[in-house]
Amino acid sequence: MHSGRSELSSEWDLKSAQMAFERGEDQDWIERYLQVESWQNLGLLRRVRAHSSSWLPPQLIEIARLQRIAGPSESFRFPQVPDEWIRAIQAIVATRPSPDSLPPVIAWQELDGVINLADGNHRVDALTEMGFRSCWVLLRDGPLRIDEEIAVRQPILES
């Protein structure tokens, strides 16, 4: 959840992600981002570390093409408590971000072309609420494999 807005500095915006890709440090940027205390995604971090991933540089993609996997109902793969979800969206909207000022969302594309959000479901909802039709996406080059999905659901042990 992105309630700790002070950590959303230029270190985690579009430009910083683009620069990391230009330097060949995309994997490191993604891993560090996923460990920020305010929005840790340790399941995804575990997957990113365990499996070599090829990431495409940030791409501007229409939000309508993105499939959320987390949200405020039981119909999502990772259901969230509705009141907490709404508060998180409101906290993002209150800062009036632009798509460029937020970290790119992290996603993978299935063989059928569906783009699933692995990280950034709150940001996508907030941007949609603010009237944006596109957002920046770090797209994994290839679909999620079953063994990776199992890794996502298991807790990570920090070394």
- CATH-scheme architecture: Alpha-Beta Complex
- Let me know the number of strands: 7
Count of separate structural domains = 1
Question: Given this structure, which CATH class is correct?
Answer: Alpha Beta
Name the poorly predicted regions: 1-7, 146-159
Could you walk me through the main structural features you see in this protein, from its secondary elements to its overall organization?
The protein has about 160 residues and is α/β, with parallel strands linked by helices. It has one domain (about 5-155): Conserved hypothetical protein from pyrococcus furiosus pfu- 392566-001, ParB domain (Alpha-Beta Complex). It is about 35% helix and about 20% strand. It has helices spanning about 15-20, 25-35, 40-50, 80-95, 120-130, 145-155, and strands spanning about 55-60, 65, 70, 80, 105-110, 115-120, 135-140. The strands form two sheets. The chain has a five-stranded mixed beta sheet. A two-stranded parallel ribbon has the order 3-4. β5 and β6 form a beta hairpin. α2 packs antiparallel against α3 (about 40-50) and α4 packs across α5. The longest helix has 13 residues, at about 80-95.
Provide a short characterization of the protein structure.
36% of the residues lie in helices and 19% in strands. With 159 residues, the chain is an alpha/beta fold.
Set down the secondary structure blueprint:
Elements: H1 14-22, H2 26-34, H3 42-50, E1 55-62, E2 66-67, E3 70-71, E4 78-79, H4 82-94, E5 105-109, E6 115-119, H5 121-129, E7 134-140, H6 146-153
Parallel strand pairs: 2-6, 3-4, 5-7
Antiparallel strand pairs: 1-7, 5-6
Helix pairs in contact: 1-2, 2-3, 3-6, 4-5
